[in-house]
Amino acid sequence: MSSATTFAEFNLQPATKAAIDAMGISVPTPIQAQAIPVLMTGRDVIGQARTGSGKTLAFAIPIAERCAPNIRAVQALVLVPTRELAIQVGEVMGKLCAARRLRMTLLYGGRSLAPERHWLGGGAQVVVGTPGRTLDHLRQGNLSLGQLRIMVLDEGDEMLDRGFAPDVERILSHTPAQRQTALFSATMPDWVMKTAAKHLQTPVTVRVDRDLETPPEIQHTVYDLEFSAKFGALRYLLDHRGDGPVLVFGRTKHGVKKLARQLEDLGYPVGALQGNLSQNARERVMADFRDGGVPILVATNVAARGLDVAGIERVINYELPETAELFTHRAGRTGRMGNEGEAVTFITPEDYGKWRQIERNLLHRLPRQAWPRGQSVGAPAPVARAAPARPAPVQAASTSRFGPQAASSARPTAPGFRPRRAPVRRTRPLAL
Prior knowledge:
CATH architecture of the largest domain: 3-Layer(aba) Sandwich
Radius of gyration: 22 Å
CATH superfamily of the largest domain: P-loop containing nucleotide triphosphate hydrolases
Distance between the termini: 22 Å
Number of domains: 2
Low-confidence stretches: 211-215, 379-432
CATH class of the largest domain: Alpha Beta
Largest sheet: 7 strands, parallel
Structural class: alpha/beta
Strand order of the largest sheet: 3-4-2-5-6-1-7
Number of strands: 14
Shape: globular
Helix content: 25-40%
Strand content: 5-15%
């Protein structure tokens, strides 16, 4: 399949091209170069490329191009698995829609239905939503998909899994049979391809990365250790972290909340992201993490997909995920868009069976090593140094158009931390 080397080769509307230029993007990524021309012709597409490869823009550009500003009806629907991803996709989609004078709205849970009902009634032409909330609006008659032209399933492997599949099926039943459908994901197991075949018509398959292996920019380190040593090992890694943000993955909502509270009680600048938080709380946590006010985030798998924060230097799998796909998505939060990153995984004897299954599905083995003796934290950090002065609070605000502004103060660092410069605002990767 031939690939474009510049956006000019796509013959885009001047307004769309200007919006892309304003994002500072000049060269399409491989998934964009291969998927955009096919989508522009109206063909169905199955697109697979690793996280951070620019999949969002690969479907956002054709949507902006193929929707008509003069038709006041929903013409494009993008379904995503999480609220955070809806907001993130919306920020990219919104720039292109604004340039083309298209109205876009977001639909996701954790907030009142009333504003969304108002936006839909105002003539939204592009909708980005989670399945549950989108179905709520369909059932209440707030959303009509009778004139839908393009349907996109982002993170398609999760959208077609058992958890979301029933809602996705119900939503699809409200759409025209002749719609254009696209499915994008970082991982594309065989079962996803078979399930997708039921919903797409003679799709063109665009596969940029054909295996689950994470990008070469990510250095993997797998440590064998006893369960009783895990918390001390985590503290050691956090005490010796660099200047970039760190993402720590746990398995359950309760476990993530408890781990974050333990770290916070010890003075670590940490936030927690898990499904029981209100939408406002989740947006505040993400604003703090993106802006550097809280450089450590402890999260469930809700952060494994779609979370796009610039410069995450290390992902720590404090607890193993259930599947190899989730392992790949977790690791993909670092080392994005050519940047270097590290993924650290803890394995206890209780995890051996699950780890063997993950490696079997990854189709390759990752080198393992014992956690070094003496490298753990029981009281102070193992490297002696003067205690840093407590920094003054630093305010961090979210500038998202789709969520309330959030302010936070940097928490004092734990004893033994190296002094840090004041957090600076980071920009997100441009090729989303």
